[in-house]
């Protein structure tokens, strides 16, 4: 068998069953091998940042890596920004990047680029597989790297001749590495801090700590000690709704974050990072917690947060504690659209076990409080700050859920334009995704930032921050990609469209004029 | 003044008058400085690969660099693939990449990435300007690097504090570096080869050699010696039409290129590279010329091709020679669309001094022969092979021409999807761009490549190479971005729409069903 075939068979043996792809000439033998072996679902994306973003969303829901198929350095380049986001989300992804044949590369034909250099900027693991006989072994290592706790980007570069040459050998799956062991001293230290300082301690949660089991353990600890709980601002996935914690994230805006963190003498980090500003500002400190606060690390991202919380709860002899009741589920709102009303309406109408992919940027900062009383759902955030991840993540999440969960994709107009090609894949794969584009016709977040510079935008600045002239028409854009769509100018219309879309089998887009 | 202001003033002093931008928070002081200083036209692109591609197109027509404004490593990442194309086109571009403040970067907030690592994969010059006092000096050096013959990608990374801190100093423009000196021995050697082997010599032209003056000199040499002339396959810009040479490029397909180059015992390269396959194939050699042919370098890309050709013509005492008459201008075609008929119709209808941005991929390989008798025009090709450059290049070229030249953007449906956000910028800037999307509902080039593997696509492969299900509707997509559009199913309709669009002041899109 050739190298390509050994690659496909090894991926299947290692548990990879989905390939997000935008292939080119140098990948044709891999495509042919996918044709020959059953067991991998191939999903085409019409631009590579859609492809890599889908793989990110897939991991967050499936909890196992998909592979991508990318064409040479430039194909990887198109997808590199959502790999940045995936790296920040700690998503496991196996990138397969086809490239020039080993003997052809020295001639430097036009598509030749620094593929490894590009890959290294976003990958924890990079390898070039130069011989057919080694492709299988390298593919198994790539999957292992991607599954290294909590998840990593692994990139395997595959020169065309390693793909087409005979001599391929299928490799067995390699063991999934265990999380790094806990530090018992860290558990003891955290327990002591909590016992002594109780109400002045913030337990800052991230990773597995904000899934259902981690939340329940954190609540036990908080109930026993008076500590407060908060989630890191950057959270690729939070378990939310009834039966989950009424958890808020550290606010995005540094002024608000500093205010929120001011009461705490101690921060105990559970797989979280100590809160710092997304950006620096001349008049604000980099860190958002008090400079005299003490920071303790219970567990690092490569350790198991649930195990750490359990050890801590045990060390504190914290009894079981029922999660507080969030009260009645809100009703759908009516009248003029506002951020609060949208949050309320989404909470009112979302089906059970929905997945929310949230790239609503400035409009959606206060979405959480309304959805405590919604049915249980998962909330996916943009983790790396680079807009254009939300729609691909929604698409990949829907694939991972096998079409069995409704995905609600909350999009700002500016970010939606980055990867609108995602809609076509949603249509092709008949995915149950309801996209709500919040059309405010501006980079609203930047208008705020500009004012932070201490000036009102003049005509030049205004035209760089404003998305009007011409107005984007999201209904036509969606229809152009094969996705049915409609415009809503009131919450009543929006609610009606949401209800109707939630019982469709395929995608739908609502353009909400805000 | 702050660093940002010194940057803007230095760019203006160095002759930069256009900024293609997609700013973010870390660039707000630069945006504010653009507001304060007159002299730079700012053009917003809704995704960074549009931004960098526009800068590429701008250089090709203006012959001087624009700057880009990109947001952190991930913003650069989104634009890195069209920077690859620009690098291959040898376009001069000054990238300004705003980044985390120097003191904030160690905290590793989410958008932090390996900005320099990304920049190095595509830039000839990379520098991080860490102090306000040095920003002006560094900006002048960046422009000088971009203008280094024949043109280079230069990337200046600007941490936010270098931008907002006081102490900025405006720097004077640095001299534009001269092309590398010619090698007189190379001229003598080429003259000797031409004298002795005449008709068995191919003069392979690229860069300035395929502009009007270079073509006239090459024709003198060919007429005097019997040598044949051909253009490199990769040509960012060719002067074409009446009064220019009836030049063909080395064919894309290796089989055809090998056939076309078979007659030649000698290749004389004029800023061109020795022809090699775009990709390797198991049954074909990497090089496309005969293995016993001798390759001679008259001039390298960093040398002045026109000067080299003039020296060669003089060494050969080649007399003036009138360019052959291309015959009558073709008429617009009618009936079923075909590639030949489209070429004929474009040639029949294009206004004087039009600019053609050609990313028609598989459909457009034979477009040249019809347009020899068209009015003089410039033809811009995808130079780096990474699809998604054509529409941004068309947009940037229209900006460079100050709205005075009609731009005809020939697009394949697959490549058009990569950077369709370009259309919005065309609408906002009221650019005279006529886009013709050749909707064949497939990655046609890849269907051909797949057959080269020796198999017919099975269902898996078919779904990765096919763009139907659902069909893209380019009329709606264009309208969604604010660009008027219509569909043509016959050449008659297409010709009517072209005629009507050529007298509009703004953009128009024709979806040609092929």
Tags for this model:
Rossmann fold, 19 helices, 7-stranded mixed β-sheet, homodimer, thiamine pyrophosphate (chains A, B), 38% helix, thiamine pyrophosphate binding (chains A, B), alpha/beta, acetolactate synthase activity (chains A, B), 514 residues, THDP-binding (chains A, B), 3 domains, 6-stranded parallel β-sheet, globular
Shape of chain A: globular
Strand content of chain A: 15-25%
Strand order of the largest sheet of chain A: 9-13-12-14-15-17-16
Oligomer: homodimer
Describe what is shown at a glance.
The structure is a homodimer of 514-residue chains. By secondary structure, chain A is α/β, with parallel strands linked by helices. Chain A has 19 helices and 17 strands.
């Amino acid at each position: 068998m050739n190298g390509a075939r050994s690659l496909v068979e090894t991926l299947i043996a290692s548990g990879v069953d989905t390939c997000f792809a935008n292939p080119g000439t140098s990948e044709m033998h891999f495509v042919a091998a996918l044709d020959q072996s059953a067991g991998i679902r191939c999903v085409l994306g019409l631009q590579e940042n859609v492809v890599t973003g889908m793989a990110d969303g897939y991991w967050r829901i499936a909890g196992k890596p998909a592979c991508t198929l990318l064409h040479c350095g430039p194909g990887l380049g198109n997808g590199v920004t959502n790999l940045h986001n995936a790296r920040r989300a700690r998503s496991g992804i196996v990138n397969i990047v086809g490239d020039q044949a080993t003997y052809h590369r020295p001639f430097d034909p036009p598509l030749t680029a620094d593929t490894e250099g590009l890959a290294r900027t976003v990958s924890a693991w990079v390898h070039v597989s130069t011989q057919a006989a080694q492709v299988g072994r390298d593919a198994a290592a790539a999957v292992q790297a991607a599954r290294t706790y909590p998840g990593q980007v692994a990139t395997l570069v595959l020169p065309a001749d390693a793909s087409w040459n005979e001599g391929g050998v299928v490799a067995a799956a390699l063991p999934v590495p265990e999380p790094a062991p806990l530090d018992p001293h860290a558990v003891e230290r955290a327990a002591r801090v909590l016992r002594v300082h109780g109400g002045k301690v913030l337990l800052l949660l991230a990773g597995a700590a904000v899934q259902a089991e981690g939340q329940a353990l954190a609540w036990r600890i908080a109930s026993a000690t008076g500590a407060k709980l908060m989630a890191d601002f950057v959270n690729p996935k939070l378990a939310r709704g009834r039966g989950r914690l009424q958890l808020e994230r550290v606010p995005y805006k540094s002024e608000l974050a500093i205010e929120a963190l001011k009461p705490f003498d101690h921060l105990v980090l559970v797989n979280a990072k100590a809160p710092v500003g997304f950006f620096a500002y001349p008049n604000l400190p980099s860190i958002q917690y008090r400079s005299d606060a003490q920071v303790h690390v219970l567990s690092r991202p490569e350790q198991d947060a649930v195990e750490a919380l359990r050890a801590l709860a045990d060390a504190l002899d914290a009894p079981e504690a029922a999660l507080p009741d969030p009260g009645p589920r809100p009703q759908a709102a009516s009248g003029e659209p506002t951020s609060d009303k949208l949050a309320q309406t989404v909470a009112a109408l979302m089906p059970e076990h929905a997945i929310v992919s949230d790239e609503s940027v400035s409009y959606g900062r206060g979405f959480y409080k309304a959805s405590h009383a919604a049915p249980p759902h998962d909330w996916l955030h943009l983790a790396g700050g680079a807009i254009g991840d939300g729609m691909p993540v929604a698409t990949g999440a829907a694939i991972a859920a096998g079409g069995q969960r409704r995905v609600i994709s909350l999009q700002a107009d500016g970010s939606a334009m980055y990867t609108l090609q995602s809609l076509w894949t949603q249509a092709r794969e008949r995915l149950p995704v309801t996209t709500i584009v919040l059309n405010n016709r501006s980079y609203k977040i930047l208008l705020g930032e500009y004012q932070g510079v201490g000036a009102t935008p003049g005509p030049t600045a205004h035209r760089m921050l404003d998305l009007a002239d011409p107005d984007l028409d999201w209904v036509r854009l969606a229809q152009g990609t094969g996705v049915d769509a409609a415009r809503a100018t009131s919450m009543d219309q929006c609610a009606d469209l949401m209800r109707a879309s939630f019982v469709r089998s395929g995608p739908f887009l609502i353009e909400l004029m805000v």
